[in-house]
Amino acid sequence: MPTMTQKLTFTTASVQNLVISNPTDALFYEVLTPEWESHQTTVRRLDTREQRYDTVGSIRNQSGKPVAVSMYNGEFINEGLWLRKIEGQGRQSRWEFDDGEGNYFSWAVAGPNFELRSLDEGEVQSPNPIATFFPHKRYGGVGMISQHAFLEIESSVVDSLDTVLGAVC
User: How far apart are CA 111 and CA 138, in angstroms?
Assistant: First the structure.
């Protein structure tokens, strides 16, 4: 029986503003790096019931690169400690993180895409990805976008989506 998936599309509203949402906007995130605060990126989730944004993550940037991460207005921790790079051969490196609730994940390059897999207690990756990031495509490789970037996730990822998107952004 195939699992249910959600398709979250990445849409840029401006150079400093990215929206990540599903077609119904039931899952709706905004990623902001204001020009006047280029050292700080904020990830906010729209609470559709309360009609307000909740800050789920903040990323401190230095020279355009992330250096520290804070989830749910907690303490900032070094980005390298939060998103741990596991060296591999060639493009086989992966980046591991946890959602703070005992769930462990690993992002890895798979062809032109990134795949997210869950990790068990022995740090063994699940055989199938639970989320896949597909980059945007352009007509003829240049010009207009023919397909926006999107993240296809299994329903099991929704509870950890705040953290998963923090690792992508």
Answer: 17
Q: What is the C-alpha separation between 143 and 67, in angstroms, rounded?
A: 33
In eight-state DSSP terms, residue 125 is B
Range from 46-50, 59-63, 133-137, 161-165 carrying the lowest mean pLDDT: 133-137
What pLDDT does residue 11 have? 83
Q: Which residues pair with 166 in a beta bridge?
A: none
Is 123's pLDDT higher than 90?
no
Q: Convert 56-76 to b/e letters by CB count within 10 Å (16 or more is b).
A: bbbbbbeeeebebbbbeeeee
Instruction: Compute how many other C-beta atoms are within 10 angstroms of the C-beta atom of residue 160.
Output: 22
What secondary structure does DSSP assign to 40-101, as a single string?
EEEEEEEETTTTEEEEEEEEEEETTEEEEEEETT---EEHHHHSEEE--STT--EEEEE-SS
Average pLDDT, the chain: 84
- Residues 56, 42: Cα–Cα separation, whole Å: 8
